[in-house]
Write a structure and sequence with these properties.
The protein is an alpha+beta fold. It has two helices and six strands; from the N terminus they run E-E-H-E-E-E-E-H. The strands form two sheets. A four-stranded antiparallel β-sheet has the order 1-2-3-4, covered by helices on one side. A two-stranded antiparallel ribbon has the order 5-6. A hairpin with a 5-residue loop joins strand 3 and strand 4. 13% of the residues are buried.
């Protein structure tokens, strides 16, 4: 028997809010990875889980930015800041 999927509860490293992601375990895990690497990769995938267990797509995505796992709210804020910085650089 194999474990195919688990859910991980994450504390956002931006605001401290909690969010959940599904962690796919059925595939090949790179040699040397520990559970934290696997979970961070799931967060990088950007799909969160609602309290009712529904997977939310990229419109409400979580992310890993500057090696920090961020909830959807912090992801949107960080993306907006980065977009503003990019626009400022283009205007220069």
């Amino acid at each position: 028997m194999s474990v195919l999927q688990v859910e991980a509860a994450i504390e956002c490293e931006g605001c401290g809010a909690h969010f959940r992601v599904k962690v796919e375990t059925g595939g090949n895990i790179p040699r040397g990875w520990d559970m934290m690497d696997v979970v961070k990769n799931a967060v990088r995938g950007g799909h969160t889980i609602t309290p009712k267990g529904q997977v939310v797509d990229l419109a409400a995505s979580c992310s890993v930015q500057d090696d920090k796992m961020l909830c959807p709210k912090c992801t949107r804020e960080t993306d907006a800041e980065n977009t503003e910085e990019d626009e400022d650089e283009q205007d220069s």
